[in-house]
Design brief:
Strand content: under 5%
Shape: elongated
Number of helices: 2
Number of strands: 0
Order of helices and strands: HH
Largest sheet: none
Helix content: over 70%
Distance between the termini: 90 Å
């Protein structure tokens, strides 16, 4: 090729490389965002499944009479007062 055609071709090559770099960078950013969303959803689903499994095991223990539910009424007022006193929260009462 002649030296006259090298200038425009070199500029075109550079433009193509920049365009490809921008496209690849954008794809990576979007991919990382999508992966973090999927990861959060998976963690949430795993937490829900864990809670469901714990409830299922509790029901199984209660059904097999290896554990009894404590259905008595309890005054939780004093426990709540002690918990609030030991924390950094302030109350108006």
């Amino acid at each position: 090729m002649s030296s006259v055609n090298r200038g425009p071709l070199a500029g075109l090559d550079q433009a193509i490389m920049i365009s490809a770099g921008v496209a690849i960078s954008g794809t990576l950013v979007v991919g990382l965002f999508a992966v973090s969303r999927v990861t959060r959803r998976l963690h949430h689903s795993a937490a829900v499944a864990h809670r469901i499994n714990e409830d299922r095991l509790e029901i199984s223990r209660l059904d097999s009479d290896t554990e009894r539910a404590d259905l008595a009424a309890h005054d939780l007022g004093e426990l709540a007062r002690q918990t609030v006193r030991s924390s950094s929260y302030t109350t108006s009462a």
